[in-house]
Automatic annotation (TrEMBL):
The lineage of its organism: Bacteria, Pseudomonadati, Thermodesulfobacteriota, Desulfobacteria, Desulfobacterales. Residues 216-239 are annotated as: Disordered. It comes from Desulfoluna spongiiphila. This is Chromosome partitioning ATPase, Mrp family, contains Fe-S cluster. InterPro entries: Bact_polysacc_biosynth/exp, CobQ/CobB/MinD/ParA_Nub-bd_dom, P-loop_NTPase. Residues 39-170 form the CobQ/CobB/MinD/ParA nucleotide binding domain. It comes from the Bacteria.
Length: 239
């Protein structure tokens, strides 16, 4: 699906690929599912924001969960554009960042904390500290069933971004998105190893735009943005 068509979405939350990924991560029998999941990628433009929005919309709209989607991609925030909501949080006299969430109409019990919510009551440095991140996610668990976090890509590093390798420590698990046939496997492996070395639990790698080589739809190049007609697969991280 192209990014320009991906905002607010029965289309997104009903996609078969999103359901499969959700089932693998959250509905395994005999396993304790994560409450907070960070979605990142090895490089930019691999589809992590779309996946984060898909999973959050599915969990809230179809699974009946109370869901919070946090935009921690401060360098290039896009979650608000996916749902057509304002980038600025509603006015609030409280210093609690979680009081600045925006409810998304027609999407079940889904709330979004935009990147702009962190620029008011907390300084940039305070909001990016590990204790602050962990405290925010732990407090969110008291209010929501599931927390999805859209983070910056692991590479290239940028001083204005909240490092996903550090942020991954505060979440229960990390999903790494890789755009197949575009991003070299070496970059994806490098990002996965970096996340694991930092102490983050990598739940799996989503192969975006994966094509079955036996399918007639497998011919033609993949695109940098969106998922096109190809699907996604959640691959083990070999942790």
């Amino acid at each position: 699906m192209d990014r320009k068509h991906s905002n607010t979405s029965s289309t997104l939350r009903n996609s078969a690929e999103t359901r499969r990924i959700y089932s693998v991560v959250f509905e395994q029998k005999g396993a304790s599912p994560p409450r907070s999941v960070l979605i990142t990628s090895g490089w930019w433009g691999e589809g992590k924001t779309t996946l984060a929005c898909n999973l959050a919309a599915l969990a809230a709209g179809e699974k009946g969960k109370k869901v919070l989607l946090i935009d921690y991609n401060w360098f290039s925030p896009e979650v608000h554009t996916q749902f057509g909501i304002p980038a600025e949080p509603p006015p609030s006299s409280s210093r609690d960042v979680l009081d600045k969430v925006i409810a998304v109409p027609g999407m079940g019990d889904l709330s979004i904390l935009t990147a702009a919510a962190f620029t008011g009551s907390e300084s940039w440095n305070d909001a990016s500290s590990i204790p602050s991140q962990a405290a925010l996610i732990n407090e969110a668990k008291n209010r929501y069933d599931l927390i999805f976090i859209d983070a910056s890509a692991v590479y290239p590093t940028n001083r204005n971004m909240n490092d996903p390798m550090l942020l991954g420590k505060a979440a229960d698990g990390v999903i790494l998105v890789a755009l197949t046939h575009v991003t070299p496997k070496s970059k994806t492996k490098r990002a996965c190893c970096a996340l694991q070395s930092s102490g983050a639990l990598v739940l799996g790698i989503v192969a975006n735009q994966w094509r079955n080589p036996l399918s007639p739809l497998s011919h033609g190049p993949a695109r940098r943005h969106g998922t096109g007609k190809a699907g996604t697969r959640l691959l083990p991280s070999n942790r």
